[in-house]
């Protein structure tokens, strides 16, 4: 299996500013996302990822996000095994210093 590609907060901010066609999936719990999410991110809690992938587009590239980067790595591994192109946000929301929407 190929290793999961990672993306830093700075790289992700740059991609978003340039309007690149990527989808963000935040796998944190409800109470965590209540404190804010990266603009444009879709909230799919980690335990819902296996059923949610059925409705996701395999032509898209996905960046997975959690608090520290561990849960999102688990989601990224699962999604990559299912045939998705994924990247994991290194350090998760702890490293994100961009805008948040609440």
H and E order: EHEHEEHEHEHE
Strand content: 15-25%
CATH architecture: 3-Layer(aba) Sandwich
Give the % helix: 25-40%
The average pLDDT value, as a whole number, equals 94
CATH superfamily caption: Rhodanese-like domain
Strand order of the largest sheet: 1-6-5-2-4
- Per the CATH scheme, the topology name is Oxidized Rhodanese, domain 1
What does this protein structure show overall?
- This is Rhodanese-related sulfurtransferase.
- GO terms for molecular function: transferase activity.
- The structure is a single chain.
- By secondary structure, the chain is of the alpha/beta class.
- The chain has one domain (6-96): Oxidized Rhodanese, domain 1.
- It is built from 5 helices and 7 strands.
- The protein has helices spanning 9-17, 30-33, 49-52, 70-81, 92-95; strands at residues 5-7, 22-26, 37-38, 42-43, 61-65, 85-89, 100-101.
- It has a 5-stranded parallel beta sheet. Strands 3-7 form a two-stranded antiparallel sheet.
- The radius of gyration is 12 Å and the shape is globular.
- It starts with a strand and ends with a strand.
- The model has no long low-confidence stretch (mean pLDDT 94).
């Amino acid at each position: 299996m190929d290793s999961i590609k990672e993306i830093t907060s700075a790289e992700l901010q740059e991609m978003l500013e340039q309007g690149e066609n990527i989808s963000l999936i935040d796998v944190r719990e409800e109470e965590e996302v209540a404190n804010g999410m990266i603009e444009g991110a879709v909230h799919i809690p980690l335990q819902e990822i296996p059923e949610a992938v059925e409705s996701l587009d395999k032509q898209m590239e996905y960046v997975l996000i959690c608090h520290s980067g561990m849960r999102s790595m688990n989601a990224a591994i699962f999604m990559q095994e299912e045939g998705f192109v994924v990247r994991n946000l290194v350090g998760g929301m702890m490293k994100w210093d961009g805008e948040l929407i609440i």
